[in-house]
C-alpha cells in the first residue's frame, strides 16, 4: 500500500511540475507577444506561416508563395511571418528565388523571416526506426523554438507539421489553419501493414514476421490517434485533393472543416507550348524527384515490356526514348539514381533511357516541347502537380490508377478522355503503344481535352479557394 501511495504522489508531483512549467511558459509567451506587437507603430495582424523548407523550390513552395501573395492582396493590415529552417539563406535570397522560380511578386516589406535552428530534428535520417513518431516529436522541438521566437495572432501550417498546432493554440493563443498535402499517416498505410503487403514503408522483414506486424500495426494505430488529436486544433483544414480529403475525414472525423483547395499549377505558360519533334523520336518524359515512393523502377519495367510488344518492329522501337528528369536532395537520392542506372543496364535499356538530374526550368520547357508522352508511376500520389503540368504542356499522360490522378486529374471515359491510367508494367506498356498507334486526330482530341481540363488547377482558382477557406480564422 505504501508503494502504491508513493507512486501516486510521484505522478501527482510530476504532473504539477509539468503544469507549472506550462503555465510559466504561457505567461512568458503572452508577455512576449504583447511586447512584440506593441513595438510596431501601427496595429497589424501577424500571420505566421510555418514552412521550414521554404527555399526548396518545389510544388509545396509554390503553394506557400501563392498563399502569401493571396493574403497580401486580400488583407491590408497584416504582417506575414514565415518560419523557416533555411538558416544558410538570407531573406532577400529566398524572396528572389521565389520570384525567379515561380514568377510570383509580393510586398517584401510586409514579410519577415524567423529562422529556426532546430530543423535537423525533423530529418528522416535521424530516425531509422519509428520515423513517423521521431519526426513528429522533432517537430515539437522546432515548433517550440518558433512560438518562443515569435508568437503570431494567426498560425498557418503549409507543410503538415500537425504536432506543432497545440503549441501555438495553447501557448500563444493563436488561431490555427492548415494546408495538408498528404496525411502523415493514412488508412492505406494501416491496410498495407495489416494485410502484410510489401511497400517502401513496410519492409520485407516486417511483412514476414507476424509479431513485428502486430507491433507496427499497434504503433500506427496509436500514432493515428495522436495525429487526430493534434490536427483537430486546426480551425480550418485545407486539403489538396479528393484522396487527401477522404483520408483526413476518415482519420479526423471533421467533414465540416475540410476544404478542397487544389494546389496552384503553372499552366498558363505551359499551355502555349507547341510540340517540336526532334529526329523523328518518340520521347516519353518522366518528371519526379528521385524518391522511393515515385517508383521509377516501374517505368523501366514498362519500357522493357514495351520492347517485348515491339519485338517485330525494331525500327519503331529504336525511335522510342524514355527521358527521366528528377532532382536529388541528398546522398540517398543519388544512390537511388545509381541503382536506376544499373537496372537500366541489367534490362539492356541503357540506349533507350536518358537520366537528367536537377535540370533548369528552361531545359525542362524544351523537354516538354520535344516529348509526346508523359509517365508517372507513384502509387497513391496525393495530387500530382507534375502530371497537371505535363498535360498543360501538351503531353498525353499515363499515370497510376490511384490517388489524385484517378480521383481528380485524369478522365478516361470515351469522348472526354484526358489521359491514361495504369497499375502495372504491362498496362503502362499497352497504354504507350496505344498512344503511338492511335490516329493523330484521336491523340489531338485527348491533348485538347487535357489542356482544357487543367484550368481547374490554375493559380487564380487556388487564390479564390484558399481565401474562401482561410477566411474563417480572420474574423
UniProtKB/TrEMBL annotation:
InterPro entries attached to this UniProt entry: ALG11, ALG11_N, Glyco_trans_1
Cellular component GO terms held in the UniProt record: endoplasmic reticulum membrane
Alphabetical list of Gene3D superfamilies matching this protein: Glycogen Phosphorylase B (3.40.50.2000)
Transmembrane segments: 12-29
Metabolic or biological pathway, per its Swiss-Prot or TrEMBL entry: Protein modification; protein glycosylation
CDD domains on file: GT4_ALG11-like (cd03806)
Entry annotated with the keyword Lipid biosynthesis: no
Residues in Glycosyl transferase family domain copies: 277-451
Top EC group: transferase
Domain (ALG11 mannosyltransferase N-terminal): residue spans on this chain: 46-251
Localisation: Endoplasmic reticulum membrane
Membrane topology category: Single-pass membrane protein
Keyword match Ribosomal protein: no
Catalysed reaction equations from the record: an alpha-D-Man-(1->3)-[alpha-D-Man-(1->6)]-beta-D-Man-(1->4)-beta-D-GlcNAc-(1->4)-alpha-D-GlcNAc-diphospho-di-trans,poly-cis-dolichol + 2 GDP-alpha-D-mannose = an alpha-D-Man-(1->2)-alpha-D-Man-(1->2)-alpha-D-Man-(1->3)-[alpha-D-Man-(1->6)]-beta-D-Man-(1->4)-beta-D-GlcNAc-(1->4)-alpha-D-GlcNAc-diphospho-di-trans,poly-cis-dolichol + 2 GDP + 2 H(+)
Protein name listed in UniProt: GDP-Man:Man(3)GlcNAc(2)-PP-Dol alpha-1,2-mannosyltransferase
Organism in which the protein naturally occurs: Drosophila rubida
Amino acid at each position: 500500500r505504501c508503494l502504491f501511495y508513493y507512486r501516486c504522489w510521484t505522478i501527482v508531483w510530476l504532473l504539477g511540475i509539468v503544469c507549472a512549467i506550462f503555465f510559466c511558459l504561457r505567461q512568458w509567451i503572452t508577455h512576449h507577444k504583447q511586447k512584440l506587437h506593441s513595438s510596431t507603430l501601427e496595429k497589424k495582424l501577424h500571420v505566421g506561416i510555418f514552412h521550414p523548407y521554404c527555399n526548396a523550390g518545389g510544388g509545396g513552395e509554390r503553394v506557400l508563395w501563392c498563399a502569401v501573395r493571396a493574403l497580401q492582396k486580400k488583407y491590408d493590415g497584416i504582417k506575414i511571418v514565415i518560419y523557416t529552417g533555411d538558416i544558410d539563406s538570407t531573406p532577400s535570397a529566398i524572396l528572389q528565388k521565389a520570384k525567379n522560380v515561380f514568377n510570383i511578386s509580393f510586398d517584401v516589406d510586409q514579410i519577415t523571416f524567423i529562422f529556426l535552428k532546430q530543423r535537423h530534428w525533423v530529418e528522416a535520417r535521424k530516425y531509422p526506426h519509428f520515423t513517423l513518431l521521431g519526426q513528429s516529436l522533432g517537430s515539437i522541438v522546432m515548433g517550440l523554438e518558433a512560438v518562443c521566437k515569435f508568437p503570431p495572432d494567426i498560425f498557418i501550417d503549409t507543410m503538415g507539421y500537425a504536432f506543432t498546432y497545440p503549441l501555438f493554440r495553447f501557448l500563444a493563443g493563436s488561431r490555427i489553419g492548415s494546408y495538408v498535402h498528404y496525411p502523415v499517416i493514412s488508412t492505406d498505410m494501416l491496410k498495407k501493414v495489416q494485410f502484410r503487403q510489401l511497400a517502401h514503408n513496410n519492409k520485407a522483414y516486417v511483412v514476414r514476421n507476424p509479431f513485428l506486424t502486430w507491433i507496427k500495426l499497434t504503433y500506427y494505430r496509436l500514432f493515428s490517434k495522436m495525429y487526430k488529436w493534434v490536427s483537430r486544433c486546426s480551425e480550418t483544414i485545407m486539403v489538396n485533393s479528393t484522396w487527401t480529403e477522404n483520408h483526413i475525414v476518415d482519420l479526423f472525423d471533421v467533414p465540416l472543416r475540410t476544404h478542397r483547395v487544389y494546389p496552384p499549377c503553372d499552366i498558363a505558360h505551359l499551355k502555349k507550348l507547341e510540340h517540336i519533334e526532334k529526329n523523328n523520336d518518340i520521347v516519353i518524359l518522366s518528371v519526379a524527384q528521385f524518391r522511393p515512393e515515385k517508383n521509377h523502377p516501374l517505368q523501366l519495367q514498362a519500357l522493357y515490356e514495351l520492347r517485348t510488344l515491339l519485338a517485330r518492329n525494331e525500327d519503331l522501337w529504336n525511335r522510342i526514348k524514355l527521358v527521366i528528369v528528377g532532382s536529388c536532395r541528398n546522398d540517398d537520392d543519388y544512390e537511388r539514381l545509381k541503382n536506376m542506372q544499373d537496372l537500366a543496364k541489367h534490362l539492356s535499356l541503357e540506349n533507350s533511357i536518358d537520366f537528367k538530374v536537377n535540370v533548369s526550368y528552361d531545359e525542362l520547357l524544351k523537354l516538354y516541347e520535344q516529348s509526346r508522352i508523359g509517365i508517372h508511376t507513384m502509387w497513391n500520389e496525393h495530387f500530382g502537380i507534375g502530371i497537371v503540368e505535363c498535360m498543360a504542356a501538351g503531353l498525353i499522360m499515363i499515370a497510376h490508377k490511384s490517388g489524385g490522378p484517378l480521383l481528380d486529374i485524369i478522365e478516361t471515359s470515351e469522348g472526354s478522355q484526358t489521359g491514361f491510367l495504369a497499375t502495372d508494367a504491362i498496362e503502362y506498356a499497352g497504354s504507350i503503344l496505344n498512344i503511338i498507334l492511335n490516329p493523330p486526330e484521336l491523340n489531338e482530341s485527348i491533348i485538347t481535352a487535357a489542356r482544357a481540363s487543367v484550368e481547374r488547377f490554375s493559380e487564380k482558382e487556388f487564390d479564390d479557394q484558399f481565401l474562401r477557406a482561410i477566411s474563417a480564422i480572420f474574423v
